[in-house]
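Exercise: predict the fold of this chain.
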Amino acid sequence: MSIDQTSLAALVTELSGMAVQEGLTSTPLEGVNLMAAFSHHPRTPLMYEAGVVIVVQGGKIGYLGEREIHYGAGHYLVQAMPLPFECETRAMPEEPLLGLSIRLDRLHLAELVAQLPAQSSVIPPDPMAAVAINEEVADAALRLVRCLKDAVACRVLGEGRLRELVFAVLQGPHGDSLRRLIVDRSHYLRIAEALQFMQEHYTQALSVEQIARQVNMSTSHFHHHFKRITHAAPLQYLKQLRLLKARTLLAEGSLQIGQVASRVGYRSSSQFSREYKQYFDKSPMQDSLHRA
């Protein structure tokens, strides 16, 4: 069942009084962030962690390879794997983008999936897809948001409200993309495990052969399935991951550019600056001054 406008309006009302600053705002519940944008943000590279992004007002367009993924008001994004992509945000001061960002905990996800009936599907899982919000997801999201407003309720009921929302997503379209992260032993799960390994070891000098061995795949099969699922070659993904991590460090403002380059795994500051400018269309210095 699709969401009706009353449910969507209730979510907008609740979030408009809570998400009052640009970007993500943390909540007392770990992994749950409020999301807001008050102006248009042009297409820019970024990476979401595995999770669910619910948009109740405004809109976003994700660009993954040749794909355009539209997730505007009344939609949520199922992000099964951390994938570098480009994102455009559509928002205005009088009608800001409002939503929720939910990071998925692998252990909690496994606990839920273990209690669901076994399912078989011949449809290839999609690691990044937009879905229209149904009433089950809307109701669970609204209960979660209202719970976040009360410290006692959040402490007592918060984890349960979050589980309810994730359960609703698992039951909906593309929930299979999340379930198969737990129960599948196909190439899809092995690539997810490879991405996790790269996230944890991106500062090291990794080779394609080393990563393939880590997930028990031949180098040729690993490279083929990695590119098919992520829309990037393994070393291209690793470079984008390092540069996105570097951008976060630069925004914090506590490190020099050379220190940032070294921190994310570059041995050459000049190579880092060159690749950074190619990816973000700004040098590290220009970007750090712009964000200051």
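Check your answer against the key: The radius of gyration is 20 Å.
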